[in-house]
Amino acid sequence: MSADHKTTQLDAPLSETTRTVTLVSWKTAGVLATVTLLYALLLVAVPHSGDTRFLLSQRSDFFQIPVVVLPSAPLAWVCAVVLLAVTAVAAVLTARRRRTPTWLVVVYSAAALTGFLAWAGAGSPRDLSIVGLLGGAVLWSVPFVYGALGGVIGERAGVVNIAIEAQLLGAAFTAAVVSSITDSAVAGLAAALLAGALVSLVLGLFAITYHVNQVIVGVVLNVLVVGLTSFLYSQVLVPSAETLNSTTRFTAVPIPVLSDIPVLGPVLFRQPLLIYLMFLAVPAVWFALNRTRWGLRLRAVGEHPKAADTVGIDVVRTRYNAVLVAGAVAGLGGAFYTTVQLSQFGENMTGGAGYIALAAVIFGKWDPVRAAFAGLLFGFASNLQNVLSVVGSPVPSQFMLMVPYVVTLLAVAGLVGRSRPPAASGEPYVKG
Amino acid sequence: MRLELRGITKRFGALVANDHIDLVVEPGEIHCLLGENGAGKSTLMNVLYGLYEAEEGDILLDDEVQRFAGPGDAMAAGIGMVHQHFMLVPVFTVAENVMLGHEQTRGGGRLDLDAARAQVREISARFGFHVDPDAVVEDLPVGVQQRVEIIKALSRNADVLVFDEPTAVLTPQETDELMAIMRQLRDEGAAIVFITHKLREVREVADRITVIRHGKVVGEASPTASDAELASLMVGRAVELTVHKDAPTLRDNGLRVTDLVVTDEAGTVVVDGVSFEVSGGEVLAVAGVQGNGQTELTEALIGLEGDVTGSITLDGKELVGRSVRRILDEGVGFVPEDRTHDGLVGEFTIAENLMLDRSDGPPFVRRGALQLAFRDRFAREKIAEFDVRAQGIATPVGRLSGGNQQKVVVAREMSRDLRLFVAAQPTRGVDVGSIEFIHKRIIATRDAGVPVVVVSTELDEAVALADRIMVMYRGKVVGIVPADTPRDVLGLMMAGISPEDAKGEVTA
Amino acid sequence: MSTPESSPGTDPGQEPELDPGTAEELEQERARAATGPVGDDAADTQTRLAKALQQTMTSPWTVSVGAVLLAIVAGSIMIAFTDEEVKAASTYFFARPGDTFVALGQAVGGAYAALFRGSVVNLQAPDVATALRPLTETLSYATPLIAAGLGVALAFRAGLFNIGGQGQMLVAAAAAGWVGFGVSGVPFPLHLVLALVAGIAAGALWAGLAGLLKARTGAHEVIVTIMLNYVAFYLISYFLATPGLLQAPGSSNPKTPPTPPSAQLPPLLGERFNLTWGFILALLAVVGVWWLLNRSAAGFAFRAVGENPRAARVAGIDTGRATVSSMLVAGGLVGLAGASQVLGGVTTGFSSDIDAGIGFDAITVALLGGSSPWGVLAAGILFGAFKAGGSTMQAAEGVPSDIVLVVQSLIVLFIAAPPLVRAIFRLPDPARRRAPKKARAARNRKEAAA
């Protein structure tokens, strides 16, 4: 009996395929229908008339674009029709057991947003600055994006990083102190990196070495760092605020030529260094995870640690390595607060941004690029309130501030769909 | 390379898993390590592979003492292992799995996937494997996944190859195929350790046989020894390989399944148009290689599957669309395939587990309150009746051995008024004594006039218990045949060949 | 198609760590106990959570005491390093090292003395009642901690991580407060009962929403409850800023009117003490949760779902219903905490910080209490003492009460990692039979060197 003979005989049944059907869920269509209904209700219940003035360029811009003035009620209703159409298409597709494509959801979101802006800015004499809206979104998304990248790296290695909040806050504090002492924003950034990694080290000690439940360690670490930074703030920073808590910040560095592109220029290329670093960090993390030995081993440890162990990969060391890198990346996000946004540290100044970053990780299905876009979305939602308050928005500010959280709720409940976390995420690796 | 284990002793606290084991494997030989489930074979191999560190003893390769700090060292020394539970990352491609741990990189730390692909193709070609290096492992059939495991070991130039229970997931034909590969590797000069508890395979392929019982080497046997000799050596006493039962007395009542289709969450049709009937007083055994829809079939019977079409009637009553609770209330007893995940709550006591599926009303619950006195009395009765060996009814079930855990599940499911009994893999991972006990209880249930469905991937068990055997392949029923159908016909049916063709092929 | 054979640890029959057959013949039960937590099903947060809690609960009292000691030492170090006098003395440390140590002792000793004085008994007090006043303060602070801790613990036992304490407390406080000052003309006991019920119901519904989303859509409750915290916060902020809803009439501050006496929890020990009947309600809740978990059919289902949801489902237990109803009860308990705040703790009108961080403290209380009702009671009183003493410490010694947060979280961390505490105190390892540990450590060293 030769092996070849056997193989050919057996290949037939092995290559046979199993019958499959596409399963769809009504969740997406349901969420779309709900939002459409709410939007229509808003237009009917609180009608606004007048024009909305969309401002597309800034006074300093090289190319000046005139203000676009559109009648708000018709525009809002056109958007409503688009929403309804997309919802209908989604429903039809679901009925035919087909999935709603992502681009359709994107079209929907864009229409919903345009309609909402048209409605909110109706009749206001002030201009609604699109550059401010988008540029602010990029700026506000910084801690979310870095935090989400840190979350993705940790979870792909099998360690749930709930401690993003602690990493952001610890890094913000450290960056404030170091930047104040050295008068150097770059030194503050480096310190933030180390602070984030230090929080990670504690996370690793308990979660990796002592197998303590990772969610518990993360939550407790968040409380610990709030307590620690608040204590040190009032005991150390407040008494000597001049020397220890007045930071040197990064200033916006316009990139020649690119910053003169209409709309996109000021949004993307008139930003501080930390933001340019973010533009680089997202593809860099993607590349490192998917195309390098480091990433392959990291993912192996997060998916099937025992398999990694049996080919000679040190699971514990790989996980520590990943968690430390994750903490350092999240730490960069923490530096945003005290080296870009403000020039001083304040008690609990991150205010739950780490939890939003965590939501971005899940929203982004554990992929660095998607997670970064999710972070950008949350940054946009956070910034929307600022822009609308300039125009004089009819919506109470509290509801605008609520938007990112409601969006996340809708996302985890309906829009994200079936997603699979790394198989060993949250699992301590017990050898043997 | 010559492998020698000298006086290996491995303890887990007070428990001696390996007791001064000596073993020599020469290059160009297939050495069988035969032993019951839990005899200490896998522990020994994990010591060899650097996963465990032995308290005493030495590992020698070509007469040189080795020190393995981890699997990395063992692999570097030329030891390769095909694990019982494949050590493959399911979401990685074949090439990624093969390169993992000894990746070649190009500039900038980039992975050199082309080199890995070439290596997979080269080894595939040498053995006629036909494995696509870019296929994602979780999409491959288990037989192909096993080949990936072999490629993984060979890609590191292993001279000593350990196959740990490799045939558990294979059809008889795939098993033959694997044997051929093992012979080819042997002929190329590899030293092969083949771990198994299946006597037939041992006699077919082994050059030498070492039998292990309770962590000790109890003897060597020649490949010409009879099944009964090997079995008694392995178990330590004469073993009854058959189950005694009388001819069935069929009744009118029973289970009727018509055109059952089950679709899983990913949209795969896992049970595809299955129809069969089981009368009261009869055992229908469902045979087939693991993963051909048997699990989902039993889960559909109990109401655990979400996407089910077709009809399941018990004594004329439709069960499809009912909740698990209501199906249980119809008198269905169910022993799930995976007792630690689906059958028991490990942290709960024996008494709590015995009432697990009756926590909604009398006699265990009255006016929303647990009836502790009744619960404890019931538990004491049942552990006596079903011979559950434990310190007491308050012992958490997770601390019992596999056999005693299974007896708790069986006791619970058999202590209701049954109108259907469904058991999936009722004796998997269970010691020989408990197997005999559970088999007797299943036959007693059948003799009480209850229709019984037993799913087993062990063909021996299916044959021993069955009045009729239904073979499943890729979610479909290949055929329903009498229990005395020849084994090789059943084997071909398990590979998807219809009973008629299978008989033709066997007689030809 | 995912094949079960290839995924990690789905092997049903065999413990991955041991060969059960040999175990059978030898001491099987002990061997099983020694296998420890084994990550079996990666997708199963519930079982993992249960195992983590098991781990926390089974640690012996020596470890708990060690953990508290370690946390207090860490607190001392923080106090010592930031104390002005110590800093001043350390500048001439080499000239007169004694001064530094005296200052150190004074700073640390003073802080902990103040903590004790503020939480247990004040020995400088003129009369017995005043001396014991700190103890009643401790119990006052403990009241919402116990109630909310029970809410988190109950959810834990059902396999759910309720991080939504803050949101549940806020909506409960708003509902109870609104019934309190918004409804008039109802006499004393009835008005109080109505306000309590409103608070409990609001908390229950807010948590139940998370349970429903989890049961229906599979949305992870950690994310959902965190998001609901923020939604509740901004919702209540809006109500507080809107006249006619929660804002006190005639005021432009985001603050409510005071709670009328007819809706207040009466004092338990007379007007001289802040302790109210809310504490008795918390004690009743402890007994109630104990009964629910250990003696009722519903609690049996909660625990079964929490420990092994798959087995519970196979046994005919409706896991979705258990998820929703356990979150309802959990939210009701947290709601009790919220209601007791506005009806007993802060009756002069409240704003959006009425939760006072209790929602998060409740998590540490539940963890320290091992998720058992009596454990939560003890942990709640301990943390109540920290809170009561912390404010005295801040007032008397100028040590920020934030240090209490640090000490609390360190306690929980240490308790969750018994091997670490044992290593620090050189306590014997009860799992001695894990003989390979030494070998393993040696191996790790070797690997690190390689």
TrEMBL record, chain A:
InterPro entries: ABC_transp_permease. It is a multi-pass membrane protein. It is found in: Cell membrane. The chain crosses the membrane at residues 29-48, 68-95, 102-122, 128-146, 158-179, 185-208, 215-236, 273-289, 320-339, 397-416. One of its GO terms (cellular component) is plasma membrane. One of its GO terms (molecular function) is transmembrane transporter activity. Keywords: Cell membrane, Membrane, Sugar transport, Transmembrane, Transmembrane helix, Transport. This is Simple sugar transport system permease protein. It comes from Promicromonospora thailandica.
UniProtKB/TrEMBL annotation, chain B:
Keywords: ATP-binding, Cell membrane, Membrane, Nucleotide-binding, Repeat, Sugar transport, Translocase, Transport. One of its GO terms (molecular function) is ATP hydrolysis activity. Gene3D superfamilies: P-loop containing nucleotide triphosphate hydrolases (3.40.50.300). Residues 3-239, 255-499 form the ABC transporter domain. PROSITE patterns: ABC_TRANSPORTER_1, ABC_TRANSPORTER_2. One of its GO terms (cellular component) is plasma membrane. It is a peripheral membrane protein. It is found in: Cell membrane. It comes from the Bacteria. The keyword Mitochondrion does not apply. This is Simple sugar transport system ATP-binding protein. The lineage of its organism: Bacteria, Bacillati, Actinomycetota, Actinomycetes, Micrococcales.
From TrEMBL, chain C:
Residues 1-43 are annotated as: Disordered. It comes from the Bacteria. It is a multi-pass membrane protein. It holds the Pfam family BPD_transp_2. GO terms for cellular component: plasma membrane. It is found in: Cell membrane. Keywords: Cell membrane, Membrane, Sugar transport, Transmembrane, Transmembrane helix, Transport. This is Simple sugar transport system permease protein. It comes from Promicromonospora thailandica.
